[in-house]
Every structure is written in C-alpha cells, then in structure tokens.
Amino acid sequence: MKPLKRYQYERYAVLCNLAYPRVFKQTRYGFDPNGQRIIKNQFGKTMIRVLWSKNSNEVVVVIKGSHSVTDWLLNFALWTRSCQKVGLYYRIHAGFYHLLFQESAPTRNEDKLGASVFERLETCLIPLTEQGKRITITGHSSGGAIGCVFADYFEQKYPKSIKRIVTFGQPAIGNWQFKRRYKLAHKTYRICCDLDIVTFMPPLPLLYWHSGKMLWLYNGKIYENTPSIIRFGRSIVSWVVRPFSYHLMSKYIRNKDFFDER
Fold first, then answer.
1. What's the average model confidence in pLDDT over 49-55?
2. What is the domain partition of the chain in residue ranges?
3. Which CDD domains is this protein grouped with (predicted)?
4. What are the two backbone dihedrals, phi and then psi, of residue 242, each rounded to the nearest 5 degrees?
5. Top-tier CATH class for 6-258
6. What is the mean pLDDT of residues 137-146?
C-alpha cells in the first residue's frame, strides 16, 4: 500500500469539508468549468459531487456524511442488508444501504426518473473511465462508508478503475463477510481524529467491521492500524490527565508568542 501524501490528505479533507455548502465553485480547486456533476438524494439535496478536469486522469467523488435529521435517524438502523443484488456477497448497515439505493432526484434533463443514487453515480462515472481516468472516492462519516461499498462494486465491474479511497470519521460498514471479501483494503485509508466516537460506531463490534488502513491523528502524531480498544483507552487516559498537562513548563514555553517584544 502506497503511503498517503500530505498534499493528498489536505486536498481530500478540504473537498470533503466544502461538499457540505450548497454552492461549490469547482474551478477554484483546479476542476473544469463543466467538470462537476451533482447527484442528489430522494429529497433533492446534494449528496455526491463528481469532480474532474481534462488535464488530470483523476476523477474525485466526494460524498457527504449525515446532513439532515433523516440521515441521522438512519444511523440507528442497526440491522444489516445484503448487497447481493449488485454482486457483492456481504451485508452492510441497513441505513447505509438505504443511502445508496434510495431514489435520486434528477439534476439534468437526461436523467431518468426512478434511478437510485447508486445507479446515477455509476452512469456518471462510466464515460469518465472510458476516457482513461481513474476514480478516487472520498467521504466523511457515512459518506465514507457508502463510498467503500460503491468502490468495491465499481472495481469488480470495471477492473483497475479505482485509484484510492480516503474516508474521514467513517463508522464500521458491514459484517465479517464484508471485511473478508472487500477487495480494496490495500487502497483504502481511514482517517480518524483523536477520540472521534463515530469511528467506534455502530456499537456492535462482532457484527460490524472496518477494512483498510487506519491512520489515527492523535497528539500531533500519526498512528497506523491501532486497535480500537487501545485507541479508546489512550483517549480516555488523555482526557483524564489533560488538565494536569497544562501545569508543565513546556506549555508555558510554547505560549511565549503571546507576549510582544518589549
């Protein structure tokens, strides 16, 4: 697995953050004036942005996390559903399943009524891959989870089409069969910041599993593939001792810049 470069991390993190505002000017970030396709959810809200440039062979798919009351309620659908209908022989969180296969409101005249988010995204990406472009999928929270499932499907149907998957604050996705059969673990980076409680969700560890390389951003360092129980324990200890850490002289030295030269 190739390491994730700092500039790549920053680029995907910025794009994930900017996916939430209603208006997004893709040309400010190097994409073509016509290099954006919006995919909406069943309520007509922007859910996915597909971004590309004719001068780059990379297409970036940015998927939002939960951004409405309905989305948050779906997080409590803790049972699983099979993805066999799209050729994936594992089960995933029922809420994530709904996000993928809900009807997508049309955004263009040529969009067919009744198409799901899953189908709309595939239709958008096929002509881009036919131009020789490769797909990077990045998403925040549940957006990262459903991005992994779609990427797994797309890679199996269109081999070597997926460049990488980078997720931020992603919850666990599916059952043990998902972990065992997910084909893109070597291309998947899961970024977790400190004690992000969502990354421990759903709270059923033997039912739900992660896959891919986990990068934990903690205390100014990056830790790779730290087990969840250790990550949770270290975070709790950090919370307990943090008030005392402010008594250390190193804290006072670090804050010397608060004082003007006199």
1. 96
2. 6-258
3. Lipase_3 (cd00519)
4. -55, -45
5. alpha beta
6. 95
